[in-house]
Amino acid sequence: MAPASSNSAGDLTSEVLQALSKSDPISSTEAFPDIPFESIKAALDRLASRSMVTYEQVEREEAFLEPEAEIIVSHGSHEARVFEAVRQAVDGLSIQDLEGQIGDKTVTKLGQGKAFKEKWIKKDGAKLIALVESIDDVTRDQLKVIQENRTHDAKIVADLKKRKLLRMQKIISFRISKGTKFALELVKEETDLTAEMLASGSWKTAAFKPYNFNALGADQNAGALHPLNKVRHEFRQIFFEMGFEEMPTNRFVESGFWNFDALFVPQQHPARDLQDTFYVSDPVKAGRPAPASADDKHDYDAYFQNVKEIHQDGKYGSIGYRYPWSEDESLRLVLRTHTTSVSAAMLQKLAGQRKDGRVPPARYFSIDRVFRNETLDATHLCEFHHVEGVIADYGLTLGGLMEFMDMFFGAMGVTDLVYKPAYNPYTEPSMEIFSHHKGLNKLIEIGNSGIFRPEMLQAMGLPKDMRVFGFGLSLERPTMIKYGMSNIRELLGHSVDLNFIQRNPAVRLDKN
To answer: What are the EC numbers (predicted)?
Structure first.
């Protein structure tokens, strides 16, 4: 066997070749017992890449003594020590004296039980006496064998392991054999084809180092997209493939008019309370809706008055909410609670467009942040992302909305949808969307949808025969599901793991 005196790569490869020249095959644990696993593996890979050796990895479990077992090997088993103490006492030994003589209460207690069971001792009055002249310390003998050979009969190993005297450890070794190009010396391999080699012709006989196409590249420490952005990209692709146009959503601060009133949300609605909404304190109020550019010819004053009349007195066939509508309340500034406020503004602008005297159909979507005064927990944040889509067209029906939802969620790999009637101030009818979660084995809500109220649309100037689908869901929930996360705070805030962001791949919604 080759000596294991050196750990350098060159010396070790030479030692492997020398060992193989004397015996083929060899075991790494027998030939190189003191060489670390990483060193022998590196040497073998170097030789195997040149076809000088072949090797296979061998895994086995070996038994190692726990500290208590090492004491037994040195001093005898608990039961043997108890027997020996009792045997040496001619007139017997009391339990108190036994504890004092052995010096370990645990050894005394465990050894007594085993010695009684083996019928080595018995109790005679207040004393213990020996029943036999000598014993075989089987436990000690078994542990000695294991200490030397790292193994024993499977039943014996299992029994000693149950007594917590052994621990099992996986040992990895290599069975090494000669390769097709075996030699006692490493042939120098060239890494580059040089001009000198071409000129001299030495390249014809030179040995070139093969390329390792399985080698990992160096970490470039490049930037990485956040998981939310990865899933957001997938959603955007689905919308674009379905013919949607992305809405501008850069207005985080909205007036109560666009965030609530334009969407037929009454001013007494609980969602407008401080407990659910963040209000801006400076400035407190916004101005009335007005054109953003000279090209915008829409009559905003008429629209503002229409919304007031719908709420206060009813209009366009609606009886309204019949309460004194407050302009000051309508113009209070809030952090938007949903991107539907942007949808309302886009639909109002759509009403001012005409092609051949008719408002054209349109499909809009948005994915952006919204803000709600929520109590923070594992599934709720004050700031999250709203995914929303609207479809404006003629002849739309509730059945058409359900069919579209099947197609939209089907593109994400979400099937078997269940629809439940719901209430939204700005849609009628409204439906919550559920899907069966196989992992939880129950229905979970994945979105909300409905058809916008006709009085809301007519107040904007849209024609009576135009209908608008609206639907929405959060971005965080599907991201958590796709990446197997149970706490939303792992996505945003101080709990975010940067390694998680860098290492996780993009998610293909239609394949998961």
So the answer is: 6.1.1.20
